[in-house]
Amino acid sequence: MTEAPANAADRPIRIAHFSDTHLGYRAMSKLDPVTGRNQRAVDIEVAFERVIEDVVARGVDVAIHSGDVFHHTRPTWHSLGHLIRQLRRLEAAGIRTLVISGNHDTPRLRMSGSAFSLLALVLPEVRFVAGYESEHVVWEEFNLHLDAIPHGALTNPDPALSQVVPGRRNLLVTHGLTPGVLVPGPSEPGEQELSPTLLDADFDYVALGHYHIATQPAANAWYSGSTERTGWGDRGATPGYNLVEIGTPGGPVKVEHIALPVRPMLDLKPIHGDGRPAEDIVERVMDQLRKLNEPEAMTHVELIDTPRPIRREVEAILRRESGAFVWSLSVVTPRSVLLPNPAEYDDHEMTDLRALFGEFVASRKGTPPYDDAFAQAFLERGDRALAEALEAGATPDEEGAR
């Protein structure tokens, strides 16, 4: 570890706060042409690498990861290797680094092992706080005290407590949902709501993880957002990280969100298909795609009042023709219920539970309580829960292919 300048405890310090990298996330069936791996898994890794490149280039003093490092508690070798390579770049640059675990990183059973115990051996200069207890970390060279509260500590019967150290720069790092960030609705598996008493106003900066949209829920607290999107509920996110400058303890703090490029995620205008032949609907969608001119984008179009046979024909044609204009196109048709007649669906459709869930939410959008904010929050949480359930149910062969 490169020694910090002798006066680092007195001068302003810069901190890179990033979160929710979700290494190991995968979606869709498209493959990266170079590696043959799932393209979205590669996108997630590339996004994290861009964050690290930018952080190192800016020469920050401290890097903070506020949880959900991985998308699964048992990460693949690809995910582990990628994380190690990137964090070693922070080590080599002499950047003090703290990583806590989020709900995706924390085993459901406490006696289960964790990848972080191995990572702590491989990356001795990185401080990992990933168990079920909070830890206090002091870096004297920056006069910096960090109160690290991983997701596991939030699940204990006794509430997690935070504390500041007088005369020091004080940071709280934790992973959960602050009251009021999202409207009430179904929670993601393992999600913890943070007690308002935890977010002590005397902290100079509270580094939050879990919510994928960069936002400031309290005067001294910030979500950095995710480094990449992990579903259509994230389409309003601006992936990147927070660049934080802290001067004297208790003094003003400067926070800038650094946006970095990721694969675009765009909604097309919905198409009303009632009475229109499939060719007409296809042409209306294709016209939007031509004007969009985003060959790397994930896109999404809603077909309204479109009979099922017409929709199937539209989907088949678009599957063949849309690839010249966008990276992917998802076609969604709202329905009054999720599965009005299960026998009506073929095996392929029945396996696409996430698409069906999206259609269900779309069908209820605009009716109480499904206003735009509630619908987006409900879709985001439900989609993640389904993705995790489907991944958990993968066969051994599928697991080995990731």
Gist of the model:
This protein is an alpha/beta fold. Helices cover 30% and strands 21% of the residues. The chain has helices at 39-58, 77-92, 115-122, 151-154, 278-292, 308-321, 347-351, 353-364, 372-392, 396-400, and strands at residues 13-18, 62-65, 96-100, 126-129, 135-139, 144-149, 169-175, 205-209, 215-218, 221-223, 240-246, 253-259, 265-267, 271-272, 294-304, 326-332.
Helix content: 25-40%
Low-confidence stretches: 336-351, 393-402
Q: What is the radius of gyration computed over CA atoms, rounded to a whole number of angstroms?
A: 23 Å
Helix-strand pattern: EHEHEHEEEHEEEEEEEEHEHEHHHH
Largest sheet: 6 strands, mixed
CATH superfamily of the largest domain: Metallo-dependent phosphatases
CATH architecture of the largest domain: 4-Layer Sandwich
Output the CATH class name of the largest domain: Alpha Beta
Strand order of the largest sheet: 4-3-2-1-11-12
Basic shape: elongated
- Per DSSP, what share of the residues sits in E-state strands of 2 or more residues? 15-25%
CATH-assigned fold name of the largest domain: Purple Acid Phosphatase, chain A, domain 2
What distance lies between the first and last C-alpha atoms, to the nearest angstrom? 34 Å
Average of per-residue pLDDT values: 86
What is the β-strand count?
16
The helix/strand class is alpha/beta
Count, helices = 10
Question: How many domains, as an integer?
Answer: 2
